[in-house]
Write a structure and sequence with these properties.
single chain, alpha+beta, 8 helices, 5 strands
Length: about 270
């Protein structure tokens, strides 16, 4: 009888151990499955945010193109017609010196307005970027930003591999934002834009000798930090990274890094 009892106890113990092992394995499997599901859900969230940002920036570029076309075809044409009408009116009036001076002044104002319309249109849609690539567009940006008060230089190695069009556009928009910030807010006198690629990574840096800024304070300001947050959002679409080496009272150094293989799938131009 004791042997049967020991056998029953042994069998029961084995069964309990097997059940315990099964429960442990089941719990571990369930936790692992939950962890995989949570990870997959987070990846879907990240992908969804990325797609939303991509769509947002694509919509912005489409709106920029529409505005540029409206300015060129609408306002630009109206200004040209107005200038032609003014010239005809001047010929009809004759040689009145005072009126001639007013005509000349008005014509100069129209010419200046037409120049501003063309400048704004180029800023909205960088045609040089589409036609000749990123380096040519950055050179044009540096030339336009250079004046008697500010010198903007572009440095790059002798050979730079061509980047995907969407990456070209993103880097141009970021450089445009950083150069404008350095001029308007940091009051920089000398700005250097650096572009190079190394080890499958493209790097863009904008260095200036301006008055600098407090990064935390700017980012807390929803309106003042919009440009910087926009840069971070653009980079997040391509898994890029930005480093702000900034402080009040000294020049700023802002560095952009994007892995080229991460920049391939995104299309902001279609």
């Amino acid at each position: 009888m004791s042997i049967d009892t020991s056998f029953v106890i042994a069998v029961g113990t084995v069964v309990l151990l097997l059940m315990a092992v099964f429960i442990i394995i089941f719990v571990a499997y369930y936790q692992q499955k939950q962890a995989k599901q949570q990870l997959a859900f987070k990846e879907l969230q990240v992908q969804h945010r990325r797609e939303l940002m991509e769509a947002t920036f694509r919509g912005q570029e489409e709106e920029r193109k529409r505005l540029a076309e409206d300015m060129h075809d609408g306002i630009g044409t109206m200004l040209s017609v107005t200038k032609m009408s003014l010239n005809q009116l001047e010929r009809q009036v004759g040689n009145d010196m005072q009126l001639g001076f007013q005509f000349q002044k008005t014509r100069s104002m129209i010419d200046e307005t037409m120049t501003n319309v063309r400048r704004i249109s180029r800023n909205l849609v960088p045609t040089t970027l589409e036609r000749f690539g990123l380096l040519a567009a950055l050179e044009e940006l540096a030339d336009r930003a250079t004046d008697d008060d500010t010198d903007v230089q572009l440095t790059f190695p002798e050979s730079v591999l061509p980047f995907p069009p969407a990456l070209d556009l993103m880097l141009y928009r970021i450089a445009q934002e950083l150069v404008n910030n350095a001029i308007r807010h940091a009051r920089a006198r000398h700005i250097v834009v650096q572009l190079f690629s190394v080890n499958g990574e493209v790097r863009l840096s904008v260095l200036d000798d301006g008055v600098g800024f407090d990064f935390d304070v700017v980012m807390e300001n929803k309106q003042g930090g919009l440009g910087l947050r926009n840069i971070e959002s653009r980079l997040s679409v391509m898994n890029g990274h930005v480093t702000f080496d900034v402080a009040p009272g000294r020049g700023s150094q802002i560095h952009i890094q994007v892995r080229l293989h991460d920049a391939q799938p995104v299309n902001l131009l279609s």
